[in-house]
Fold:
Amino acid sequence: MSEIATLTLPDGKRISLPTVVGTEDEHAVDISRLRSETGYITLDSGYQNTGACQSAITFIDGEKGILRYRGYPIEDLAKHCSFIEVAQLLIWGELPSAEQRAHFSEILAEHSTLHEDFRRHFSGFPVHAHPMSIMSAMINALQTYDLPGMVIDDEDQFERVSGALISKVRTIAAAAYKSSIGEPITYPRYNLKYVENFLHMMFSRPFRDYVVTAEASAALNLFLILHADHEQNCSTSTVRMVASGGANVYASTAAGVCALWGPLHGGANQAVMEMLTYLRTSGMSVQDYLAKVKDRTAGIRLMGFGHRVYRNFDPRAQILKGACDNLLNSLHISDARLDIARELEAAALSDDYFISRKLYPNVDFYSGIILTALGIPVEMFTVLFAIGRMPGWIAHWKEVTADPAGRIYRPRQIYTGPARREWMNRFQREKGTTDSRGFTVPDDLLAKPMAQ
Ligand code: CMC
Structure:
């Protein structure tokens, strides 16, 4: 039986509220009866203390730097799994058997191409269009080709649609890139695995095949696994919100892409690289840059630092930092921005501004260096994040839509606008007797409100 919390309100009313305990001993007060029984709601700007749902997908302990998908530590998954196995784990709750893996790979291969009519949409965008714009529009448009009836009837169809989305999001990303550089779109190949196929579609050209190295595919596989889910972050919460209204999985995940784009969320990986490039080209010292960040008037943040949940370290950043060193060494690449990143990290971690606010490098701090080493252009960084996050979004869409007790997400608010006002006609509102065309307004018009 759950323990009871008691809340005493300013009007003297007391309410007993049940508490909920999660698998990992996280505690919550269930306030679902609060408004109906007291008239009060809770106010929690930015949802810092609000549990919006119960979820069985991902566990994070921000104090201890723990991240687990369906119970498995991220470090183990990153070491032993392919991105597609992790996708199946997130969506269906278990790591796949050999048979399940082969079956899902077949679905991915079958659905890797885009309908020929669909490919024409790419030429409708201006060449400078940001690939995140193209991505969100195209995922939404995919539904009209893949799921014209808009309803998923059974588990097999859900599996097919999930596979199609995971497979095609990568084809769309590569096609958006090819269109932006004026090259023909490259078709996927049946014999290539997920990550290799993406790199092939990104970099093969009609007159020259791109040779995918084991190092490049391992680094991208790792990047995608580390981005595959992160419980109730901004984009996933958006997907759940849209799904709760009954929208299909294409519309819901397209909304997730839009939410991901912002520089405080998925767009941070692009912003980090731009920051490091600025430091390299301008020659500004790390200390001067940090001084600008701390002097809040410049309005800049140290991108790739800080996290709403992680208050000690982000385990994804630690894994990526190691991978970054290995990749650059194995590819014999030297990038001055990696040295600047290391210098920035060391300086920030010994600076009281960052220490006192518990700000540490997050997943985006080193990911841009890896993507750059793989030849991915900076505008594509957030798109790569979206490819990685797709299985997580689908898993959350499934969790919301499969919940028999599910209700539409609809937060309340505390209204702070004007109290009730008397309606006045336009002339009264303009407070003069002459209207904008220079006509004098008759007094009787001002005297009483005009009929609509
Ligand atoms: N640089 C400088 N100051 C910072 C930073 C930063 N990167 N992040 C937070 N702060 C300060 C902030 O100004 C505030 O200071 P004060 O208490 O004096 O007003 C304090 O630290 C707390 O910040 P907050 O904005 O209340 O924290 P939050 O939990 O709302 O924001 C965050 C989290 C990730 C949006 C924020 O840390 C940030 O803007 N970081 C830079 C952008 C970034 O790297 N985003 C990627 C996040 S990881 C990928 C993902 O999952 O999306």
